[in-house]
Design goal:
364 residues; 33% helix; four-stranded antiparallel beta sheet; seven-stranded mixed beta sheet; 16 helices; Gyrase A, domain 2; alpha/beta; Alkaline Phosphatase, subunit A
Length: 364
């Protein structure tokens, strides 16, 4: 029997297994350790990292290689995979935004407060909760602004949250944790590279400078490690540059609005929700209009192809009746997310630049 490919959903689970927490498998082969640190660098694609070895010597010195991001290749889906050990079809955060049928609203997890209730949207126990119940010190080091967000409450709950705004604060907090002679799992989140990639593109000097700062962070995390502690560095997705000439303005084509109630998602992966009885016509029209610019799939095809892993039937209505996945440098821009649609760097799709992410390990 062929073993399924490694994905981001295996990272948090492997870290828990390495600590001896029951019910998890160490598929990354971290190996038994007493303390583990998982650092997720938002937007760090494997291909982009490999293109700049001189800028990332600390990352280059780590063992490991590429694994697959969760689809759609976007932060809420990726953090859901890391935090629950499940892919989108089971944790239910199926995109950068999606229709939440229970209320009829479009839920945008990156802008989610406390409504709807996070545990109602994602009721599965998180890896962090299960680790904490096993008498392991479970800590998150990330910006204070995210502590009480709906996304944190949905997929990363169960951890003691320590607001940390820069490299120094993260390193200071981590050093204090690792000095304690007790089992610990520390999650470190770094957001800057994704922001710079969106604004300036992954081919820019600004992105390369931001990668150098990531490498400084990783080097300092390695320096913090004590005997019996291991570090895993991963990401939620990669990124592609989508110049203005590669954009398709969805709102400007009346054919693409025919039979459509709304669309959601993001410019590289759109969920399209059809009016009652119109799904087949919408599917045919979007295929005809977009042609080779996007893969246009029905909800059933998304499920059958396993793009979101196994899909809980109770969550399937969150997926669009039609899903359009941009190819090459295409971006499906819209006034519904005008700010995002103006950005150069994009993700969400199935290109190798977006899907391949690092899973790098330093064993103490």
């Amino acid at each position: 029997m062929t073993q399924r490919p490694l994905t981001l959903a295996d990272v948090g689970s492997s870290a828990a297994a390495a600590l001896g927490v029951d019910g998890f498998e160490d598929r990354l082969q971290i190996g038994t350790c007493r303390q583990v640190v998982v650092c997720l660098v938002d937007g760090l694609g494997w291909q982009a990292l490999q293109s700049q070895p001189a800028l990332a010597p600390h990352l280059g010195a780590l063992g490991g290689g590429p694994i697959a991001a969760a689809f759609p290749t976007t932060t809420p889906v990726g953090l859901g995979a890391l935090g629950t050990g499940l892919l989108a079809g089971e944790h239910g955060l199926v995109g950068a935004s999606f229709e939440y049928p229970e209320s009829g609203e479009v839920l945008s997890p990156l802008h989610w407060g406390r409504h709807p209730t996070p545990v109602a949207v994602q009721p599965e126990p998180t890896v962090f909760e299960r680790v904490a119940r096993s008498s392991v010190r479970m800590t998150t080091l990330a910006p204070a602004a995210y502590e009480h967000s709906g996304l944190t409450g949905a997929v990363l709950r169960g951890s003691r949250y320590v607001g940390s705004e820069d490299v120094d604060e993260r390193v200071t907090a981590l050093s204090a944790i690792l000095r304690h002679d007790e089992p610990s799992y520390t999650y470190v989140y770094w957001a800057e590279l994704d922001r710079v990639g969106h604004e300036s593109g992954v081919s820019s000097e600004a992105w390369r400078a931001a990668l150098s700062r990531v490498d400084v962070l990783v080097g300092r995390l390695v320096e913090c490690l004590v005997p019996g502690a291991s570090l895993v560095v991963t990401a939620d997705h990669g990124m592609v540059d989508c110049p203005a000439e590669s954009r398709i303005a969805l709102d400007d084509d009346p054919r693409l609005r025919r039979g459509v109630r709304r669309w959601a998602g993001e410019p590289r992966a759109r969920h399209i929700y059809a009016e009652h009885g119109a799904a087949a016509d919408v599917l045919a029209t979007w295929r005809e209009v977009l042609r080779d610019r996007a893969d246009v799939l029905s909800r059933a095809q998304v499920v059958e192809q396993g793009l979101m892993g196994p899909v809980d039937p109770e969550l399937s209505d969150r997926i669009g009746d039609v899903v359009a996945i941009a190819r090459d440098q295409t971006m499906l821009s819209s006034d519904t997310d005008a700010t995002v649609s103006r950005l150069l760097g994009q993700h969400g799709g199935l290109s190798s630049a977006e899907v391949l992410i690092p899973a790098l390990v330093h064993r103490g």
